[in-house]
């Protein structure tokens, strides 16, 4: 069971393209470039299609992060799971609850990315949604200690990052942001 290695590599390459073009290229995460350059990002392509399996794979990745400090962050990529955004959001909530139950709260945090990502207060075609619109559903597992350390050297209040990203995406427009994201395939 599982995806063929060629398919997994294709998904990883496309995800790396998305990180390069949008996350780093648009400076949506001012900390991503450093970790990518240092090759400290882990990409796991999960064949999961159910919440139970996603939770198992999520927990496996947390345990791997426990053991291997050379990994700064993990992207758990879910190409076969949660195509419906509402269902995906429920899965993100379940992952956050799992962090609490397994005593990982304060150690790791999870960020969500989805091809149909939509902020509560936005229309589906709002360019702002592209700040979190990935090419596949995924969970981004981050070390909280690394976040705190990076923020010590960040010259601006971190609360400004989402607003800056939204303004940037809206200035570029939906057509541009969609074209940029779609070019990653």
**What class do helices, strands and sheet pairing give?**
alpha+beta
SS element count, helices: 7
Quick one: how many beta strands?
4
The major beta sheet can be summarized as: 4 strands, mixed
Strand coverage percent: 5-15%
Rounded average pLDDT: 96
User: Helix and strand succession?
Assistant: HHEHEHEEHHH
Can I get a quick summary?
With 185 residues, this protein is an alpha+beta fold. It has seven helices and four strands.
Tags for this model:
single chain, 185 residues, alpha+beta, four-stranded mixed β-sheet, 7 helices, 49% helix
Q: Care to describe what's here?
A:
By secondary structure, the protein is an alpha+beta fold. Helix content is 49%, strand content 12%. The two termini are 25 Å apart. The mean pLDDT is 96.
SSE map:
Blueprint: H1 5-24, H2 32-37, E1 41-45, H3 51-67, E2 73-77, H4 85-101, E3 108-113, E4 138-143, H5 144-152, H6 160-172, H7 174-182
Parallel strand pairs: 1-2
Antiparallel strand pairs: 2-4, 3-4
């Amino acid at each position: 069971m599982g995806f063929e290695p060629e398919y997994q590599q294709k998904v990883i390459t496309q995800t790396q393209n998305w990180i390069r073009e949008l996350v780093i290229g648009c400076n949506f995460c001012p900390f991503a470039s450093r970790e990518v350059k240092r090759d400290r990002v882990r990409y796991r392509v999960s064949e999961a299609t159910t919440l139970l399996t996603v939770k198992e794979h999520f927990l496996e990745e947390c345990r791997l992060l426990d053991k291997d400090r050379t990994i700064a962050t993990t992207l758990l990529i879910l190409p076969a799971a949660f195509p419906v955004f509402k269902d995906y959001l429920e899965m993100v909530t379940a992952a956050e609850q799992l962090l609490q139950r397994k005593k990982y709260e304060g150690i790791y945090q999870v960020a969500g990315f989805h091809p149909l990502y939509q902020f509560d207060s936005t229309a589906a075609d709002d360019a702002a949604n592209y700040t979190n619109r990935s090419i596949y559903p995924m969970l981004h597992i981050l070390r909280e200690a690394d976040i705190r350390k990076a923020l010590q050297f960040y010259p601006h209040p971190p609360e400004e990052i989402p607003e800056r990203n939204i303004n940037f995406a809206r200035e570029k427009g939906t057509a541009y942001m969609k074209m940029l994201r779609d070019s990653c395939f």
